[in-house]
Design a protein that fits this description.
Largest sheet of chain A: none
Strand content of chain A: under 5%
Largest sheet of chain B: 6 strands, mixed
Helix content of chain B: 25-40%
Largest interface: A-B, 12 and 22 residues
Number of helices of chain B: 8
Strand content of chain B: 15-25%
Oligomer: heterodimer
Distance between the termini of chain B: 42 Å
Shape of chain B: globular
Order of helices and strands of chain B: EEEHEEHEHHHEHEHEEH
Distance between the termini of chain A: 53 Å
Strand order of the largest sheet of chain B: 6-7-8-3-9-10
Order of helices and strands of chain A: HHHHHHHHH
Number of strands of chain B: 10
Radius of gyration of chain B: 18 Å
Radius of gyration of chain A: 22 Å
């Protein structure tokens, strides 16, 4: 009897968690659908979009630049050390370029921008929710989804490819600096190897990933902030959830996109 | 034949989980009337107001504006008839004061130009006793009383037919509360607007109200003219307006 009681309790707990998970996914999908539907319907808040492009794009440049610069340099060192085991040190320029463009550029930029932007969007919208500013927008005949969510999601989707492109260049430059000044590569040969082995598909695949990651981090910041709980604790929780869910989604979607873009 | 009420609530219910906040609210507010709704904390006054505005959907009941269902017709046209002063002001932090005040005037197809909207905003700020220099400040640079005045200016900027005031004097000192109460009364009379105010503050009730409704246990416990509240004979209202701990309203809720 006691055993049955525990089994029932255990199954009920699993059932509740499963239902909760599906309900959360359902809410997110509805929010995403609503966001996408508002993107293509008037009115468009161009000024707000411009502000968000500047805020998400321009002000994220230092973070993305520094991250990719040091990652490119570290990657060059790692590939050189690993390649030395097979007398394949010469692959450093091409692997650094391909690795940055296809994988590390978009993923690291996505994670860094998620940390910087998704959190700030969630905190901003969460505070607006708690202080009734979102309700105030509605009473002033302004749809908060259009005015707050759409500009942020669209801006994140548009600027991420640009950030990643710049990040790729800086990352490859990091590898170049380490290759030339630390590993004694010839500068002209390093650049030639990079150009020879890097194809357009490497870059475009990274930019496609970047756009998807931008959409994800913008959406998760807005979703968590828009549905923030009450008080400082609610806003804090929304901020944490935004960064965690955006990061996990970026990493998992990265795998799916890699499978789709580069099938084995 | 009696006039159609400006706002009419019939059997409005709203629950959050097991908590039945509104359990069949019936209330009529006539055109040009200033109705003040009182009641203890957590009795559903703000929920009622949000249900009228459509910020929350009632579980049951009907809400009529001028005899027509509140959720019928264009939402934008419906909301354009309302102005609202939020409890905390709810000013947009990222916008200067003038833009907050003129926000609605800069929306939609008939929106005003930037300079015209700014002129209207400055005029409304002047109406609530603020100088034009305030127009270019940001909300964070204002005191609580000034933020309330800006919120009031925003609520009246588009000259709405119906204005809602949610706890207009909360967090203000008695003098500033008196100023805000007087402003609300003046503006409502001047505009001929229908007003619905939520408050705990009895000085606000006496300054603003034509009629008073008290909400308790999710229903309108008592309603009548402001002149009748001291002699209502209703034990709930008596306890509330005299701020007594003993009485039919439990002090621990």
């Amino acid at each position: 009897m006691q055993a049955m009681y525990f089994i029932n309790g255990f199954l009920a707990a699993i059932g509740r968690a499963t239902l909760g998970l599906f309900a959360a996914i359902g809410r997110l999908v509805i929010f995403m659908g609503e966001t996408v539907s508002h993107i293509v319907r008037r009115p468009f808040y161009v000024r707000e979009l411009g502000q968000q492009l500047l805020r998400i794009g321009y002000f994220s440049l230092p973070v993305v630049g520094l991250t990719t610069l040091f990652t490119g340099g570290a990657l060059a060192l790692q590939i050189y050390a690993g390649g030395a085991r097979f007398n394949a040190e010469s692959v450093v320029p091409s692997i650094v370029a391909i690795g940055m463009a296809r994988e590390l550029g978009p993923v690291l930029a996505g994670l860094m921008v998620a940390g910087r932007v998704a959190s700030s969007i969630a905190a901003e919208l969460g505070t607006m929710r708690v202080t009734e500013q979102i309700d105030a927008l509605t009473t002033l005949s302004t749809n908060p989804m259009k005015y707050l969510v759409v500009p942020r999601v669209v801006a994140a989707t548009l600027v991420m490819p640009l950030l990643v492109l710049i990040g790729d260049i800086i990352g490859i430059m990091g590898g170049f600096l380490v290759g030339v000044y630390r590993l004694d590569f010839n500068a002209a040969t390093y650049i030639q190897n990079t150009i020879d082995f890097l194809v357009l598909g490497d870059i475009t695949s990274g930019l496609i990933k970047a756009a998807v990651f931008g959409f994800i981090l913008g959406l998760m910041g807005c979703y968590n902030g828009y549905n923030s709980g009450r008080g400082a604790q609610g806003v804090g929780q929304a901020t944490t959830n935004a960064v965690v869910t955006a990061s996990v989604l970026i990493l998992s979607v990265n795998y799916i996109l890699t499978e789709l873009l580069f099938p084995a | 034949m009696s006039a159609i009420p400006k706002i009419s609530l019939r059997g409005v219910h709203k629950s959050f989980g097991d908590k039945h906040v509104l359990a069949g609210v019936n209330l009529d507010i006539l055109s040009g009337e200033s109705m003040v709704i009182i009641g203890g904390s957590g009795t559903g006054k703000s929920v009622l107001l949000k249900c009228v505005l459509g910020l929350m959907q009632p579980d049951a009941g009907t809400i009529l504006i001028d005899g027509r269902a509140a959720n019928a017709g264009s939402r934008d046209a419906f909301l354009a008839r309302f102005g609202m002063l939020f409890q905390g002001g709810a000013l947009f932090d990222s916008l200067p004061v003038w833009h907050n005040v003129a926000f609605r005037l800069r929306q939609g197809q008939d929106r005003l130009s930037k300079s015209d909207a700014r002129d209207v905003a400055i005029e409304k700020l002047r109406r609530v006793g603020l100088k034009p220099e305030v127009a270019d400040l940001f909300p964070a640079e204002l005191s609580g009383g000034m933020q309330k005045r800006v919120g009031l200016a925003r609520a009246i900027a588009a000259e709405p037919e119906i204005i809602f005031f949610d706890e207009p004097t909360t967090g203000l000192d008695p003098i500033m509360s008196g100023v805000i109460n007087a402003l609300i009364r003046e503006i409502v009379v001047e505009m001929g607007a229908t007003a619905m105010t939520i408050t705990h503050d009895m000085s606000s009730v006496r300054a603003i109200a034509d009629k008073v409704a008290m909400i308790h246990n999710g229903v309108v416990q008592w309603t009548g003219g402001v002149g009748e509240i001291d002699n209502s004979g209703d034990p709930y209202l008596d306890q509330f307006i005299n701020a007594r701990a003993d009485g039919p309203i439990e002090s621990v809720r």
